[in-house]
């Protein structure tokens, strides 16, 4: 066994002992309890159902109905058909926040930007889903 073999073996051993870093991150995080997992899954299901319901409602609407919704709210100047579905998705996420992946969180952040850019503190679209005591 030459010097090169020992160094290669040592390198392999060091890499095997170090792991890929993900194992250490997993060990650093405390394990999720059943109650936490159940709460996370319920939040995901509630968000999924609400997003699906809003998408179905938006798909069923005619262009004139969407324009009328904006006109009645006094926000017709903010209507952008290209970003409307993003705004609706962001509204659903505001009402039903849920844990999500980093990639989805970045997309939601972008969608929320479109929503906040035009609506400040104004509610529209999903207002019918909010109860009288749930406004803030």
Protein architecture, described:
The chain folds into two domains: 1-30, no CATH class; 33-129, no CATH class. The longest helix has 27 residues, at 34-60. The chain starts with a helix and ends in a 17-residue tail after the last helix. It is mainly α and 136 residues long. The chain is 67% helix and 0% strand. It is built from six helices and no strands. Residues 1-32 are annotated as: Disordered.
Extract low-pLDDT stretches.
none
Residue share in β-strands: under 5%
What proportion of the residues is helical, as a percent range? Answer: 55-70%
Mean pLDDT: 77
Largest sheet: none
Please tell me how large the radius of gyration is. 24 Å
**How many angstroms separate the termini?**
73 Å
Give me the strand/helix succession: HHHHHH
Whole-number count of domains: 2
Choose one word for the global shape. Answer: elongated
Backbone structural class? mainly alpha
- Number of helical stretches of at least 4 residues: 6
Report the strand count: 0
Region (Disordered): 1-32
């Amino acid at each position: 066994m030459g010097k090169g073999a020992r160094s290669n073996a040592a390198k392999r051993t060091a890499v095997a002992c170090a792991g890929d870093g993900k194992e250490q991150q997993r060990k650093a995080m405390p394990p999720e309890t059943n109650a936490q997992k159940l709460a996370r899954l319920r939040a995901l299901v509630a968000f999924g159902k609400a997003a699906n319901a809003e998408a179905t409602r938006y798909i069923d609407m005619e262009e004139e109905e969407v324009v009328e919704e904006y006109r009645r709210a006094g926000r017709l100047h903010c209507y952008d058909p290209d970003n409307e579905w993003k705004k609706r998705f962001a509204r659903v996420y505001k009402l039903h926040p849920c844990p999500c992946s980093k990639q989805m969180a970045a997309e939601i952040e972008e969608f929320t930007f479109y929503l906040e850019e035009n609506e400040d503190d104004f509610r529209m679209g999903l207002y019918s889903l909010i109860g009288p005591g749930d406004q803030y």
